[in-house]
Amino acid sequence: MAAIDMIKVLAVILAFIYYNASGAQQKIPELAKKLGATTLLSYLKTAGLDTELEGDGPFTLFAPTNEAFDSLPTAVKEKLATDKTLLRTVLMFHVTNGAVYSSQLQNEMLVKSLDTTLDIRINIYKGGQVITADGSQVINPNQNATNGVIHIVDKVLYPLPNINIPQYVTISPELSTLFYCVVQGQLTDVLSGQGPFTLFAPDNTAFDNLPPGELSDLLSNQTALVDVLKYHVVSGTQYSKGLVDGDVSTLEGKPVKITVEEE
């Protein structure tokens, strides 16, 4: 029995070695296919980026799963299917020059993508157990190709416009009341600073649900208004993937209690 068990162990080890060796003999597009990222590969071919990723590199590819693409809104998928320029920009945002392994990633690191106008923000949470790239969680890191490395991620990375928090609030109709409060509280300059900051942004409905007269009272008391607004802001980039139960310090000085519900 011991001999049979030993043979089984050796077989598993040999299979593991073969798998990794065979993966390392593949270039990034072929390895992406092997890893099941077939939707991404199809988009890469449409945009003409598959041939670039067969070059010498090395490259790092943050590769969304098929499910990540499936979960995109229908309008976004239709836009990607018809706008090749946008598609290419989105895909280039998933690739960096150089082979960057998870052990090299640092919290709040900005990694230049192939579109050199766009940086990928790296964040590390839970003692290194969770790594995100622009909020998308790395779920299968360090897959070696002959010309780089692939990290499988659970969401499609969005190359958002290069705007700050007040500018984002300005262009979001559902946050118009919040924007008015930020202006009245003279916090625009603070939230336009280098940061990084995370804003837990109440939408218009949240303000509508306040007791009658409370919003008016806040707007007439700038000190109280500023305190309330700063209580919604924390330092650092806190993506939802990295949130854990507990207290987080706010710009107001008091901690806000975070409770994470299971999805």
Automatic annotation (TrEMBL):
Residues 1-23 form the signal peptide. The keyword Signal applies. Residues 24-157, 162-263 form the FAS1 domain. InterPro entries: Adhesion/Biosynth-related (IPR050904), FAS1_dom_sf (IPR036378), FAS1_domain (IPR000782). It comes from the Eukaryota. Gene3D superfamilies: FAS1 domain. Keywords: Signal. GO terms for biological process: cell adhesion; extracellular matrix organization. GO terms for molecular function: cell adhesion molecule binding. It holds the Pfam family Fasciclin. GO terms for cellular component: extracellular matrix; extracellular space. This is FAS1 domain-containing protein. It comes from Potamilus streckersoni.
